[in-house]
């Protein structure tokens, strides 16, 4: 390949690169991490609450049975199922028949309630 062709190809490649966002001679700044970005959005990382009804509370086992709607973050349809609770104190606030809002996550392969509050 001739030198002029190589230079044209190199110039075309450089032109196709996205702008760096810093002036000549200025050092690039590190990319923002997900945690620093979350500070811009107060609700970033907040779990979406799902509606449910308490069917059974088993305080000694740290479990609760809920009839619930779809849980988006777990891609789960509505059903009745047993969950572990991350904090057993959550079970002190509810009894069978209570309408609740909750957040659940898959923690190390176990579906776990991480937040539980009375429905509004």
Structure explained in plain terms:
With 120 residues, this protein is an alpha+beta fold. The chain has helices spanning 3-16, 34-38, and strands spanning 50-58, 63-68, 79-85, 99-107, 110-118. The protein has a 5-stranded mixed beta barrel with strand order 1-2-3-5-4. Mean pLDDT is 77; it is low at 28-45. The protein has a domain at 50-118: Copper binding periplasmic protein CusF (OB fold (Dihydrolipoamide Acetyltransferase, E2P)), CATH 2.40.50.320. Helices cover 16% and strands 33% of the residues.
Question: What proportion of the residues is helical, as a percent range?
Answer: 10-25%
- Total helix count? 2
Shape: globular
CATH fold category name of the domain at 50-118: OB fold (Dihydrolipoamide Acetyltransferase, E2P)
Q: β content, as a range?
A: 25-35%
Major β-sheet, in short? 5 strands, mixed, barrel
Structural class: alpha+beta
**Main β-sheet, spatial strand arrangement:** 1-2-3-5-4
Order of helices and strands: HHEEEEE
What key attributes describe this structure?
120 residues, five-stranded mixed beta barrel, OB fold (Dihydrolipoamide Acetyltransferase, E2P), 33% strand, 2 helices
What's this entry about, in short?
The chain is α+β, with helices and mostly antiparallel strands and 120 residues long. The chain has helices at residues 3-16, 34-38; strands at 50-58, 63-68, 79-85, 99-107, 110-118.
